[in-house]
Amino acid sequence: MTTFRFVQENARWLAAGFLLTWSSGFGQTFFIALSAGHIRAEFGLSHGGWGSLYTLGTFLSAATLIQAGRLADQLRVRTLALYVLCGFVVMCLAMAAVSNWIMLIFVIFGLRFCGQGMMSHLALTAMGRWFRNQRGRAVAIASWGFAVGEATWPVLFVMLSAIIGWRETWVMGAAVLALVTAPMTFFLLRQERTPISFATIHSSPGMEGRHWSRRDALGHWLFWALMPGLIAPAFMVTAVFFHQVHFVEVKGWSLAGYVSLYPCYSGLAILANLMAGTAIDRFGSMKLLPVYLLPLGGGLVVLALCSEFWLAPLGLALIGATQGCSQALIGSLWPEYYGNRNLGAIRALAISATVLSSAVGPGLSGWLLDIGVDLETQLLWMAAYLAIASIGFVFVERVIEPPIPKSDKI
């Protein structure tokens, strides 16, 4: 089936996945961090202090997601999405009204839990469950929402905050979720791809021809071999975006000019995402593992060493390539190897580890900045870690047995 025909036949459900990932942007680091300068100034926080608050809020989000993620196995996508969106709207309004650092911790928790956590988890879990032979492409297309959000939300935030203020811009974010995302989600999913989107419908087994429980997955070596490399992009990209205000100050660039380059990041993320999804459908997720971290490593090296602004688009584009691959890969890997009957529970565990990794990134990098380790040096350390992780994935790919071949046309 061609990609055009696939999109045409499944436009309603793919659009719903895109909408959820696009709307998750208000809870992603690249958006929240744009308020960093205002927050640090108003509450008198150092880089380490702001990073520590962000780490704590994100850690609470990860801990909650471990249990809340199971709801994706029990409720319809439309129902759960609307519940999450209600909470998301409240959290955006709370960010607009935050008045002290204690309240800020809980606001960050809510934004991260609803946006990076549940909205992303729900969208990719739905794609993994609703599609089988075309799963890679479905996950890739739904994941375009991440890239489009990264290309548009930062530019809009900088523009609006200069005109109406940073707090008022968060109110506008709440309005988008309430007046655009919620009604469109209800409309698109008034008919879901399966009559009841529970895990027992159209189930697809994983390794050994069986459906793995969360406990089974935790007891298998593959889960633990995958996690160090899979959570690395969340740690590193979050740290890069979180300290973007500081980064452009060190480089002597303007923030507005830097965020205007995000379409370079997003454009390559979309292209890499679609290419990865097509490759996954043809060759399987595991073939992509040994190479998908390499562009991120290259991008970090470019950003660390470059002083000229014209090289920044290259660094951002390379980071975007890994992010695009990562979204397609992680959305397909878990159902492919562990089945989709307990997909929500297993993905919740994996995404919680990813969220936790993204929590550690800002706090650790902020602390290192406070003790004098510059961000450029940190980026080079990260690139070295990615090289080691990629070597480890080569061994994993050679050892693991592929799951039973797919035999249907779903």
Question: Care to describe what's here?
Answer:
It is a single chain. By secondary structure, the chain is mainly α. It has helices at residues 3-9, 11-23, 29-32, 36-43, 47-68, 77-97, 101-130, 135-164, 166-188, 214-218, 221-230, 232-242, 244-251, 255-259, 262-283, 294-305, 312-338, 343-370, 375-399. The longest helix has 30 residues, at 101-130. The radius of gyration is 20 Å and the shape is globular.
Features:
single chain, 410 residues, mainly alpha, Growth Hormone, Chain: A, 19 helices, globular, disordered C terminus
Can you summarize this structure?
With 410 residues, the chain is mostly helical.
Topology:
Elements: H1 3-9, H2 11-23, H3 29-32, H4 36-43, H5 47-68, H6 77-97, H7 101-130, H8 135-164, H9 166-188, H10 214-218, H11 221-230, H12 232-242, H13 244-251, H14 255-259, H15 262-283, H16 294-305, H17 312-338, H18 343-370, H19 375-399
